[in-house]
Amino acid sequence: GQSLEQPSEVTAVEGAIVQINCTYQTSGFYGLSWYQQHDGGAPTFLSYNALDGLEETGRFSSFLSRSDSYGYLLLQELQMKDSASYFCAVGSGGYQKVTFGTGTKLQVIP
Amino acid sequence: DADVTQTPRNRITKTGKRIMLECSQTKGHDRMYWYRQDPGLGLRLIYYSFDVKDINKGEISDGYSVSRQAQAKFSLSLESAIPNQTALYFCATSGTSGATEQFFGPGTRLTVL
Known about the structure:
The complex is a heterodimer. By secondary structure, chain A is mostly beta strands. Chain A is about 0% helix and about 60% strand. In chain A, a hairpin with a 2-residue loop joins strand 6 (about 55) and strand 7 (about 60-65). Chain A is globular. The termini of chain A are far apart. In chain B, a hairpin with a 2-residue loop joins strand 7 and strand 8 (about 75-80). Chain B contains no helices and 11 strands. Helix content of chain B is about 0%, strand content about 60%. By secondary structure, chain B is mostly beta strands. The mean pLDDT of chain B is about 95. Chain B has strands spanning about 5, 10-15, 20-25, 30-40, 40-50, 55, 65-70, 75-80, 85-95, 100-105, 110. Chains A and B meet through strand 4, strand 5, strand 9 and strand 10 of A and strand 5 and strand 10 of B.
């Protein structure tokens, strides 16, 4: 089966940079994606990596190392509105089924 | 209008009752998913469907059933609700690959007493 590990909570200061790590175990790896979820809201897609390296989208970047079964989400110039839960998700197998991690709750403090 | 809608948004029911949660999408996607979210457990896949004739069990399908009435509609049923099915339920859709990007509905908060 698939399993993912990510820290349960992270606290960072407004304006700073924070990195949220995700390690996974899976067979037939297809890709790693990241989602943001604010309290009471639905998850929204942030980024996707299928190949090794860094993908940048504005203040957010995502990195993947397939050989290490590891990825991270990097948030720069943190804003208070970035306080949310962040989920990594791995796609695997012939059906490209997606398994989500348990989420990292990010608190941005002034 | 929202691309993925869910009804109802909130529901309180009693143990043993049958309940249906509905999901509709206007994105034209073939792939649809039902997830359950519990505090500290993330999103867990209940069922997924890659087209009207293709329905697959996820990791926690026991106690649930689904119906794909059309490309745009995917319903989740609890035949006999029990308290540990109290959770937040999300429907999602994706294009060619669910591994790349999924679009989520607003969620249904279900409470089973």
